[in-house]
């Protein structure tokens, strides 16, 4: 097994395991860049009311996450919606009130490690 450190992953777009996440991104989220089943992803995004959504994802201890939204999925169109959440090693379940940003348009969410 090859050891991959921060200096090997920060500045490249290499995706060693072919899971669609760069090695650098996987390093930041404490995922294994050599395991295609190990990457940051939402387990569920559920409507919980008008402009209210429930997001759940597997977290890593000590890793911080934020929720971002976009109306278009454009690379530069993402805005941070929430405070920062600290990973616990369990599934994080967060209720998001998007009423301040939604105007009956579609919203897309993503979980980032800042």
Gist of the model:
Helices cover 9% and strands 32% of the residues. With 114 residues, the chain is mainly beta.
Describe this structure in words.
The protein has 114 residues and is mainly beta. It folds into two domains: 1-39, no CATH class; 44-112, Immunoglobulin-like (Sandwich). 9% of the residues lie in helices and 32% in strands. The strands form two sheets. Strands 3, 4, 5 and 7 form a four-stranded antiparallel beta sheet that branches. A hairpin with a 2-residue loop joins β1 and β2. The longest helix has 6 residues, at 23-28. The chain is globular. The two termini are 28 Å apart. The model is unreliable at 1-7 (pLDDT under 50).
């Amino acid at each position: 097994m090859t050891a991959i450190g921060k200096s090997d992953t920060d500045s490249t777009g290499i995706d060693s395991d072919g899971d669609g996440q760069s090695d650098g991104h996987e390093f930041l989220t404490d995922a294994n860049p050599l395991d295609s089943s190990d990457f940051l992803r939402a387990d569920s995004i559920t409507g919980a009311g008008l402009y209210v959504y429930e997001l759940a994802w597997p977290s890593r201890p000590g890793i911080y996450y934020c929720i971002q939204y976009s109306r278009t999925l454009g690379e530069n169109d993402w805005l941070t919606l929430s405070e920062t959440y600290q990973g616990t090693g369990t599934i994080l379940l967060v209720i998001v009130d998007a009423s301040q940003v939604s105007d009956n348009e579609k919203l897309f969410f993503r979980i980032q490690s800042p």
